[in-house]
User: Fold these one by one.
Assistant:
Number 1:
Amino acid sequence: MTPSGTFHWFELVTHDVDAAKSFYQSVLGWQSEKADSGHSPYCLFTKNGVPVAGVTGVETMLDWPKLDTFPRWIGYVSVDDVDSCVSNAVASGGRVLKEPFDVPSIGRIAWIEDPHRGDIGVIKLAA
């Protein structure tokens, strides 16, 4: 389990999942495999059989602010309580980009933005 306050996962949101898979396979030696995460299409990037990141299409996240404009990598930090983290972010001058939601078999996730417009995901893994 990833300690609270450390990066747990990275996810690429892109306009062309197949091109991204080809690029990262060529550059980093990553393989890809389809996965069920509640987003479709969604693939895992793996290295030597170990998941290292995910990739999905922009069209699956059009209701997420900032994702309808350009591809991006999203880093997810492990937290003890997603809802408390989101409340603390707002109280500290940040804003909520995606309200907390549950992904079956994965955990609870939200996306927040700091006062300087830097965005980050937070995640509490399912038990």
Number 2:
Amino acid sequence: MSTSPSTAPTTETVSIPLERPGAGRRVKAYLDGHRSLVGVAAIVLLLVLGGIIRPGFASADNIGSLLAIAAILTLLACSQVFVVVSGGEGIDLSVAAVASMSAVLASMFLSRADGALGSALAIGGVLLIALVIGAVTGLAVAFARIPPLVMTLGMAQLIAGAVFAYTAGSAPSSAPGWLAELGAARAFGPVRWLVLVVAVLVVAGELWLRRTRSGRSLFLVGANDGAARLSGLRIRSIRLLAYTSASVTGAVAGILLLGSAGSAQLGMADGYLLLSIAAVIIGGARFSGGEGSFAGAAIGAVLLTVLDSLLLVLGLGPGTRIAVQGAILLVLTLVYARERSLRS
């Protein structure tokens, strides 16, 4: 009996060439991954353009002045980084109010302080008040699940009203000499002490974010709070840390603003609020959380400051400049909304 040889089924491997992304997508991917580099390039471009329009715009002295102006915005943008990175669609609308409050209280407390110890206690008292405010906000958002925008907006109004009632609407005392010197004096060349202090704080904050467990936990919670919870992280406590840190950083910004301005005024930091949000997004953060940096926020703050100065050189009034700032924030929000819809 003859049997025909069995033939085993054969498989043929077919290689399907992967479609290479187009040049536009590759450029977009590169820009998304190097937003800080793009921000630096934009700053250089604006300085060159300003130098062409008005000689001296890109001089060392003017750049030093621009950095000093951007210093306070940088700190307020860094305070937003804590909240934005931790996710939960969080933005802190109270940081500017905290900064204004801190400037007013610091001027009042320092005017009554006696010696270095008294000044240290006065500043410590201001920071403690800011810490309590941040803790209340964080508890409400993380544990009571009040939406961040609602809670921080309400807290901002509460702070503004409380400060107005406490001061009876009058302008408090001016900054002490040493604080005014810190805000205005030059350390070397065109660089002021204010810029150096803020630079040190930014570097220290960046190291804390990247090198410590508590700092990295902000990124983990912001990127995926479900996975972070499974890994044992305490989501609510971490977000409480974010809002507390944001408030204390805002208070530091307010104290330095007092030194830079020389005296305190009610609501003196209010104009920084929307700019602080825009600076964070320009610096590479995402409203959805998990991405952001202090260095990027600083670059965004400098970029917005240089842009505003260039618009002033062009002869545009305050209303037009504010409209441009609002348009920038609107465009950034629309871009984020589109990216979010594509990811989902």
